[in-house]
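Field log, afternoon session.

UNIT: design team B
ACTIVITY: writing a sequence onto a fixed backbone
BACKBONE:
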């Protein structure tokens, strides 16, 4: 069974993606998706958001949809926000 995740883009678009090996994403895969070093934000439902660790420093566009998800799970401070492409997947999909 191939596992599936979702990329959430700053403009609100979503794209379903699967790891190359069908099971879990490599570091290189997620770095390519987010465009740099990764930061992992755990959600209360066992899923994770993977985002660009230096996104705000790089001037990436705000990602309102990913920000709402993080706030719903109380995974970040209320005044904080997420920028850039974000991968949302189950925690076991990132090794």
């Amino acid at each position: 069974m191939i596992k599936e995740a979702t990329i959430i883009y700053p403009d609100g678009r979503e794209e379903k993606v699967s790891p190359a090996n069908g099971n879990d994403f490599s570091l290189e895969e997620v770095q390519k998706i987010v465009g740099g070093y990764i930061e992992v934000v755990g959600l209360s439902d066992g899923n994770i958001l993977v985002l660009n660790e230096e996104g705000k420093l790089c001037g990436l566009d705000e990602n309102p949809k990913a920000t709402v998800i993080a706030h719903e799970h109380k995974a970040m401070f209320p005044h904080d926000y997420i920028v850039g492409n974000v991968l949302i997947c189950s925690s076991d999909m990132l090794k």
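LOG NOTE: The mean pLDDT is 94.
NEXT ACTIVITY: expression trials, pending approval
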